[in-house]
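Exercise 7.
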Amino acid sequence: MTKNERPLRCQRCRRVFIRPNATGCIPRYCSDRCRSASYRSRTSTPTTPPHYDAAAVRLTRAVLNKAQAMAHRSQHPVPALPLEILQICVALRRDLEDTTAVALRQALAHGATWKEITEVIPAAESTLKSHCSVDKVNKMLRDRVQRGPARPRQPAAPTRQPGAVSCLVGEWAASPTGRVSALSRAVLPAAGQ
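Solution. The predicted structure, written as tokens, is:
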């Protein structure tokens, strides 16, 4: 076996290969692909994936608060705000979607693979990569900061008493259209006496 025929080992992929040319320097890599990959790994600055631990804590607290508010409103509904539970549901669903995206990025930062993630989340890997990319998650977190915390709703207006004629007359007379209804005209003279 001559010097040109002995097998060489690639410094990148550790695969055994034979020298392609008898002249020139002894190659260290089996292909241009391995040579380029080795160069990139030597010259690029290592980037660590962003950790989303603090964001995950904030989002899970927001989900918990909204779930508790929804449970409270379900037990103690306010007749003046019939859509309040539905509004909390919509906000809770948005927060859950945001929490899922942050939890996915957090799992990747802690070493999970896409294959493991797709076993937990029933979606295609390409869909998750596009919907939960680092850029999209960071944008979502920036938007949440700009939006600020959810503001609590004002308490409902006091309900009218069944026997309060003067209150009813005032409400009928000051209708949103500015017109006085026939019922209020009939009651107004009686209330003035």
